[in-house]
Specification:
The protein is mainly β. Helices cover 10% and strands 35% of the residues. The N terminus is likely disordered.
Length: 267
């Protein structure tokens, strides 16, 4: 049984906002290549998130080759290139390692044709030691069944050690601080918003003077990290610009007096 859960006061706010549009939305899914979700219909627009293979996107409008809508997993609104979207399939397995090889046949030792990032959602059939899906074959050692979530979000986040910072990113090839926390919690079956400001509603505040423990979340300005133990945190380091384990640091703007906020998920 999963030992972690979250308490979010108003996690279904986006559901209520978009409820009138559900019937008219065209549900599609990200293809085999991750695609950025942008603030406008242009490759130059700010990246606000990233769709991973198999994740669903509710399309409300398509103009000029760009689909506008929202990510069904976390209701992040934005634009994605319509050509990157495909017919959705029911998820049977999820990639749990930093990346998983896609092979041309069922031999688990065959060379990879490509790789799928952590969090990719697949629909397939188990054949011995591999999963056969529409894009090829993936060794089961890189996957878990959709109904068997991970137990420790910290261990999940640590599989992305060294991943470089990328605004809006959610994969080994580029990730931001809130994306790291979201991905780690999602693989443990915990609903998690996309943005740091909304993640501050997770769990309960850790009282001043109380010690920190594994899995506690630390917030400062728009930065978030997750405690590995009572001293060290895993985060997208503002200084190193990559995923590291170190004492929690926060790049505060000049003149900011915001203090550290500490949150604990119920266990």
């Amino acid at each position: 049984m999963n030992a972690w859960r979250s308490d979010i006061a108003d996690i279904d706010l986006a559901d209520r906002l978009f409820a009138p549009h559900y019937a008219e939305a065209l549900v599609r899914a990200c293809g085999v290549i991750p695609t950025m979700v942008r603030s406008g219909p242009s490759d130059e627009a700010e990246a606000v998130s990233q769709l991973l293979p198999g994740e669903e996107f509710a399309v409300l409008d398509i103009t000029g080759g760009w689909a506008w809508g929202y990510c069904r997993l976390d209701h992040r609104v934005g634009y994605v290139e319509a050509i990157e979207l495909a017919e959705p399939l029911e998820t049977t397995h999820i990639v749990i390692e930093a990346q998983a090889p896609v092979q041309a046949n069922a031999d688990p030792l065959s060379p990879p044709l490509s790789f799928l990032p952590m969090g990719s959602r697949l629909h397939g059939r188990v054949q011995g030691a591999v999963l056969e899906f529409e894009g090829g074959f993936v060794p089961l050692s890189y996957l878990r069944s959709v109904d068997a979530p991970e137990e420790d979000p910290v261990a999940v986040a640590q599989r992305l050690m060294g991943a470089l910072y990328r605004r809006g990113g959610r994969s080994l090839h580029g990730i931001d601080c809130s994306g790291l926390v979201q991905l780690a919690l999602q693989l443990c079956g915990i609903d998690c918003p996309r943005d740091t400001v909304d993640q501050r509603a997770l769990g309960e505040r850790v009282p001043d003077g109380a010690g920190l423990r594994r899995g506690d979340l630390l917030f400062c300005e728009d930065h978030v990290g997750m405690m590995v133990d009572d001293r060290m945190a895993i985060q997208v380091s503002p200084e190193a610009q990559k995923v590291t384990v170190e004492p929690f640091s926060c790049a505060q703007p000049a003149g900011s007096e915001e203090g550290l906020e500490r949150r604990r998920l119920a266990r």
